[in-house]
Amino acid sequence: MMAGKIHLSILLLLAALLLQALDTAAITDTDDLAGLQALKSIWKNTPPNWEGSDPCGLGWEGISCANTRVISITLATINLSGQLSSDIVKISELQTLDLSYNKEMTGPLPQAIGDMKKLTSLILVGCGFSGPIPPSIGSLQQLVHLSLNSNGFIGGIPRKIGKLSHLYWLDLADNKLTGTIPVSNGTSPGLDMLLKTKHFHFGGNQLSGEIPSRLFNSNMTLIHLLLENNKLTGDIPSTLGLVKALEVVRLDRNSLSGPENLNNLTHVQELFLATNKLTGVLPNLTGMDSLNYVDLSNNSFDATDVPPWFSSLQSLTSLIMEMTQVQGPLPSSMFGLPQLQTVKLRYNRINGTLTIGPNPSSQLQLIDLEDNFIDAFTQQAGLHFQIILVGNLICHEDETQSYCKFPEQSAPMYTTPLENCNPQPCTEDRVFSPSCKCAYPYMGTLFFRAPSFSNYGNSSIFAYLHKNMTASFKSHGLPIDSISLSNPTKNIDNYLLLSLQVFPSGQDHFNRTGISSIGFMLSNQTYKPPKEYGPFYFIANSYPYFIGLQASSKKSSSGIIIGAAAGGSVLVLLLLMAGVYAYRQRKRADTADRRNDPFAAWDSNANSGGVPQLKGAKSFSFEELKRITNNFSELNDVGSGGYGKVYRGTLPHGQLIAIKRAQQGSMQGGLEFKTEIELLSRVHHKNVVSLVGFCFDQGEQMLVYEFIANGTLKDSLSGKSGIRLDWMRRLKIALGAARGIQYLHDLANPPIIHRDIKSNNILLDERLNAKVADFGLSKPMNEPERGHVTTQVKGTMGYLDPEYYMTQQLTEKSDVYSFVVLLLELLTARSPIEKGKYIVREVKQAMDTGKEMYNLEGILDPIVASSPSPRSVERFVDVALRCVHESGESRPHMSEVVKEIENIMEAAGYNPNAESASTSASYEGHSKGSNHPYSNQSLFSYGGNYTSNSKFDST
User: Fold this and answer.
1) Nearest-CA neighbor of 633 among 621, 612, 620, 650?
2) Catalytic residue among 192, 756, 765, 774
3) Is 756 assigned a catalytic role?
4) Which pTM does this prediction carry?
5) What's the fold here for domain 431-540?
6) Which fold does the domain 713-907 belong to in CATH?
7) Cα distance between residue 648 and residue 658, in whole Å
8) Which CATH number is 30-297 given?
């Protein structure tokens, strides 16, 4: 009886304590609870502790409250998937919403989001959202931070964003936005009203029209204007100079014209105007004393003498002015600028003697003056930087000098050093941290959009960033042990990329709260890098290593224990029987797989007969390529075709690669895939795109190629890439392509007929060297077939050899015919078939050998027609017409074509061997918006796997 009273007293005491706890604990507002529960019902992978009816009191992960109201949802990088429904508006006091780096968050943003009047931060970086940006966002009057970059939004920039008077950060970059930049017009708002906004980040879209002069005014506090890689036209507005706070201006890779003067931008530190349609006199940058980095390349300025400001800008680190028609000798004083790191003045008219001067900058790393007219160089002993004079007059006379050869390409190497220990192997996916521990790091890529420096080989500047980031993360109480930075590279957008790994403190995994905290600090720009790095954004990898929640209580009922034991015994027995059965079935399946899979016995350390005989190509695992492409992220998607998609990636040592991933319907059998990679791995020539490796793992077939920076010859001839090809450069491209094809015919083992030579399959590297690509239709010619092989007709309309089409007998002369159609493209910049007219017939009909240029001026591209060597154009036409003879036997071999082009160049005063391309390791591109060089035909089969609705493929 006494025991019963004691038990009752204890129960009453516990009840009282429970009532007291309930009286003092937060009880979440019913509307907020309804909103969260509605989101939970449509979202997948929500945190496991999202249980119960009191998110504030129970501490749901990612949810922050003030008393009973939810004020913050931060769920970055937790593998969340689903859509953002209008139920979010039920959480009416919400101030911060961050769902960044959840790539499976998709669909449109709800129009009702404009009803969330308390919202100050809307951050959806690196998700998969699509559809138009709802104009109702303009109703979020308290909004300070709006980051919608790296999604798939379409349509225009909503005018009503101009009503966000408190907005500080506006990032809409890397979407698919179209239309013009909206400005106010008296009745409708526009972006010119954003006087407090310091960041306009709109790069990587499809915005068109002019940059409105009304966009800028003297009351703005704008410091970053990023409009690169759009479709903007018209003059650069002079009103830009009214914004006195501007520090970074990126207008590159548009179609802008003007400007006459920019020197009123006195605070600008980074100025990117490359690859536009700027004309007239070279801009006067005198007075821009803060300028660190300037790039005016690939514009059509008037021929201009070297301007005085080359030597007067004391803060200059990087002078990039390729193809700008700068002429005359360079003053030696410019190389003494104290901060100077890089000078790139390729493809200009620099002449005279190159004199460095007695006191060059201690930071100078590269002077690249390729393809100018320098005839002498005052050499000095002990120079600590590279000089490239390939293609200058001085190198025509003596090519043995080191400055007359391209230096070996090597990516800048940096990895955060270890703290007094040697690297150790770690199990599974764990990584050895700088603090000498194995753990599962949070990983991703930092993208710096406009760094003020160009010397990526300087480890001290990355060490400084590492120290700065570590201190910042720890000062904000993040659960980190250490940080590692590595693999600095420059991508085709001219951004600096750095791989980031963040390691957990106290354990080898992060929990969701830790991951979201780190993601939020990067997504909402709480972390501020050193100023010389400029604006940045971060794209995170998924993180599958969260610690599971531990059970909070245990039941000890003896009945449950007995029942569990009995049930467990039965379960163990069943599992044992299932395991034996599965093992036998798996053994049978493995035996069948080994019979059908030529890679089943693969052993990279053994010389097994089943191993493909590869020459220089690497076998990549699926996980390696998944990691390299950030889980095949859309951000790395650079092209597609009938075979599947192409992804850009960076190998650990810095080499950029293109990964062609076959979709299910286009895969070959294992034996055919093995045969193909054996063939392609044997192809090694400076004018042929190199196979880096392959993946035959987890049911995937992928080919890995070197990444070629400047796209296709077709893009350059059409003006799409923004690269201007003069007559000398076209001759060099023709020679490079011819040498590549000759190699395939005469030196490859076995010889190869390409079968699809065309301007889309000639790629241009960073030095505009030609590389033959796309072996999707190629045919190896083994010894019995050296004469010809009868095969199904394949190729591209306009380039196809008529004899091959009529007889189905394929010979190397079929490639010769296609190549000469390519030569006519170089002459005319026209497609082989244009408006029903065939280029070969047009040239033959218009030709009159009794007149200069053979009377072809009306057909020739104006750049070719104005060539300083008309006779070289005529001889080029002669070669072309010899090669389009109807009979293959009457056409020359590619070796003869190569010799003819070499002779033409020498007669015109050009050195055919002035350049020596090397395998690409890192690239600077010009046009992200153009079709990628790897996005055309399939590379996955060389013999008959390509199909079309007709015997021809469209150009």
Assistant:
1) 650
2) 756
3) yes
4) 0.68
5) Alpha-Beta Plaits (3.30.70)
6) Transferase(Phosphotransferase); domain 1 (1.10.510)
7) 5
8) 3.80.10.10
